[in-house]
Structure formats: structure tokens, C-alpha cells
Request: fold
Amino acid sequence: MKNFDVHNRKFLIRPFTYINSSLFNVTIRSIILLMIQVVMLIATNSYSSVFIVLTAVAASVLADALWAKVTLTTVLKNHTLQVSILQGLIAGLLIPQGYPLIPIFFVIFFTMIITKYFFGGFAYSWANPSVFAVIVLWIIGTEFFPLFQVTFDTLAMRNPSLSLIEGGTIPLVSFDSSVTDFFNNTVFSLFKVSVPEGYVSFFWDNHSVIPAFRFNFITLVSSVFLFSENSVDLIIPSVFLCVYALLVRLVSPFFYSGLLFQGDILLALLTGGTFFCAFFILNAYAMIPITVWGKAIYAFLAAVTMFFVAGCGTSSSGMIFTVIISNVFSVMIQQFESYFDRKLLQKKLEDLKNQYDSELQEI
Reply:
């Protein structure tokens, strides 16, 4: 952009102002924030998951480069390179450790190619390509995805999450005791309550074999940066998390004869990739409605789907099926949005025509 220098003053030719961040900025920020999760994997010696993520990114980028080569488009055009890196990161973080690298590479590579062929690329895809690839991997390798970590008998207890902690499913981190004591002596003491050791570790690293489900604290902090920069819409994650938490708290005990209105919200939110789904997947570009009411309905239906598909937590695959089903809901909602927009436009045109006719008659 050229500058004009008039009497030592510079004027920029910038007639447009973005209300929200551009796709390029949102994608770059998301990649940086997801890379923090990869750094955490390295710090916890989870090298198997690191290689899976790198394989997924390589397959996604290669598929995008090949598609650009065949269709004679520039990879950097429309920011497809950054988007392919982001899609590879999300797919890799959703794959459990121990999954063979060769099928991961070929499934993600061909899935990305197929989605681009049938749906016309990122901007026209109704189904999230990353999640779609993980579903294919789940179908051909179900045994690599862990089962539910809680049973109906465990859910009937008052605090199923505490049973996972006491059973050693959630190992304690070294700073758990000191942080727990600090909050018990400062914040919780004001309400005359205390929390046992283990919840800090649960929140910091639940040691899920699926990387996207592990570091809930990192995911929450990342969401703060996304919201502060207007990188994602606040409506969808807010409605999704609130509705899902209420369903778990109030409705879930009726299904397993648990304590009435005492469902374990922490178990639901800190396992199964709930936060990751809300902040990094459900808000994906080109896969969500446009209007406020459309986003709210979309998030509500996603929460209900999450409740019935993923249950009350610890599901390893419920989230990915929730996203695909929600994508179908989004297509239907967008059709209604287009219908109402056409009706509104038609009404405004008719009003304008009537006003113009009345002015002609007066003349």
C-alpha cells in the first residue's frame, strides 16, 4: 500500500476496516496455539503423539500442494497452505497415540483430496475434513480408540471424576498438593468448602491417549486469546458448553439411576475433548451459520448431540461424531437463513418499489 506525503503527513489508502480478524490471522493464531499443545506433548515425552501430529500435517499439506498442482492454482492463494497445516494439526491431535503412522498418512492424504474434489475446497466443505479423516481412521482401527473409562455403576456415584483420580487413572502432578492447598486456604475457605487433591492434575493433564483431550488448562487459556482477538465467535462455545453442562448435571442421572440433579460436570468438561471441540472445531469457518439465532440453534443442537452420543465424559470418539452430525445441522440451518434472507430482501425491494411509485404519483 503506497503512502501520500503531504506537508510531512502520511495518508494511507485504507478505505476498508475489518470487523473481525481475517482468515489468515485466525488461522495463524490457531496454529500457534495448537503448537503449544505439541510442545506439551514433547515436554511430557509423548513422542508417539508428536510423530502422529507431524505425519498428519505432512499428509494434509502434501494433499493441498498436489491439489493446487493439478488444478493449476497457487498454494499461497486463498491461504490454503495455512489452512492445510491447521487441518493437519487438528486431525493429528485427535488421533490416539499408538496408531500406526502409515495408515494415518494415507487416510488423511486421500481424505483431504476427496473432500476438496467433492466439496470444492475449504470454503465449500460442509463437513470438517480433519474430523472426517479421524472418523475414517476410527472405522478401520477402532481398537486403537479407548473405551469409556467409567461404568454405569461409577456414574451413579456422587463424584465419578474423583473415583478416576483415586483409582490412579489420573496421575498426580508434583505441584498438585501445593496448588490445592493454596486454593483451599484462600478461595474455597470463603465458602467453607475444600477440594481434595487430584483435581488440579485432572485439569492440567488428564493423561488421555488422545492429545486433544489432555491439556484442558492450555486449551482454556488458548480460548482466551482467541476470544480477545475476535478470532472465534463467543456464541457457539458459550451456548454449547452451557447446554451440555446443564444436560449432564440435571438430566444424566435419570439414565443411570444416579443422584438426582447431581451429574458430574467436571467429568464431562475435562474428558472427551469437550473444550477442544467447543473452541477449535465447532467454530470452524464455512461450517457454521451466519446469523445470531442460527449460531445459537447450531450450538444447542451440537450440545444435545454431544450429550446423547458422547454421554457424560471419557468418550474417545463421541466428539468426532458430534461434529459431523452438527455439520449436517449447520447445512440445514444455513438453508433456513438463506430463505429468510431472500424473504427479507424481497420485502425491502417491494417497500422500496412502493415508495418509488408513490413519489412518482405525487410528481
